[in-house]
Amino acid sequence: MLRLDNHPSGRHFLQIPGPSPVPDRILRAMSLPTIDHRGPEFGVLGLQLLDGLKQIFQTRHPVAIYPASGTGAWEAALVNVLSPGDAVLMAETGHFATLWQKMALRLGLAPEFLTLPGTCAETGLPVAWRQGVDAGQIAERLRRDPGHSIRAVCVVHNETSTGVTSDIAAVRRAIDDAGHPALLMVDTISGLASAEYRHDDWGVDVAISGSQKGLMLPPGISFNALSPKALEVSKTAKLPKAFWAWDEIVEMNRSGYWPYTPSTNLLYGLHEALEMLLGQGLDAVFARHQRWGAGVRAAVQAWGLPVQCADAGLYSPVLTGVVTPVGVDADALRRLIHERFDLSLGTGLGRIKGRMFRIGHLGDCNDLTLMAALAGCEMGLKLGGVKLAGSGVQAAMDHFAAHPAPQVLQAAA
Ligand code: PLP
Known about the structure:
This protein has helices at residues 24-30, 40-57, 70-81, 95-106, 135-143, 168-177, 228-234, 246-253, 264-280, 282-303, 330-341, 367-383, 392-402, 406-412, and strands at residues 13-15, 63-66, 87-91, 110-114, 150-156, 158-159, 164-165, 183-187, 206-210, 222-226, 319-323, 343-347, 356-360. It is an alpha/beta fold. Helix 10 (282-303) packs antiparallel against helix 13. The protein is globular, with a radius of gyration of 21 Å. The structure holds pyridoxal-5'-phosphate (PLP).
């Protein structure tokens, strides 16, 4: 049997873009004794969590918490507002957008999957998997729907398979400019609490997120942030729903409870995460991730390898996709790096499997843990026979040294 305590010495470097490394503070909070989920203390905890989550999503409206992975919250989002056969507009930005589209098909919806055709001359990879959502394409499609048969536009905020973000405010403007009433649904499973996300300001109707990324928790809980319009539409939507139905959850949440047994100890962890993130301030959290992303990209550029994201305005602050040279199997490299240096990197997924790997820069990391991860990558790339243009480790060190974290600057002032 696999012994989970049989680790090599030192900390494992979990540098995948979620699950992210969990801070010790959160692990300790989760080890407290489980309490009665219908008792008085639990109601207080529940209300605090729901309030804190609203601040994280930047919304005044309800947030539903599910004891499920992000996939469950995807399903919850679709079944609460849509009816069998409904047309939904989705955009192929990568593997997770593709999985969500497949789920829509399985649920009996009629998704239309917008894409950007062609392959990139430099890498041979699909163009659509190196770009964000094209808001102009969405506006154009909605204008060709005068009968308003399209019920929702569903997009991914931070495509975890590619490291490309999408401009959600621009998608909102596209829907409004087309004068179309479709709901805007946004997967921010890997964006929330790392990349800026403004639910109310951006006019999002349903947002989907999960615990194991920016919230720095283990996997196991996920979220739907709602708008008043989404709640209204859910009253008449006809896809079958019971466990996922928002009405009972939102009703019971008013007093801090759930209609079923919630994940008590993960919620302790969420409480701690909210204290950490809100205590630091969301702007500082976003800036921290941007800074880490820039340092990691400096390394990749110094190695002379292409970053998967082809648009510098859309670089993900959460992860960086690194394209390997033609003929170099990115998964073989990842295996080598794992064996030699106990460092886990994200695999390429779907249409780009084997052609790239992903470096996560989220969760419980800092400049030095990232430097260690980059050192592991650089050693592994060389051992794997990849000819590097220069030292990424040196470039990232230079970057971090030249760009002190804001709190360091404040302390020095
Ligand atoms: N959407 C995105 C953008 C993701 O990154 C993931 C998981 O990594 C999912 C959906 C699916 O979530 P889960 O694996 O928690 O079910």
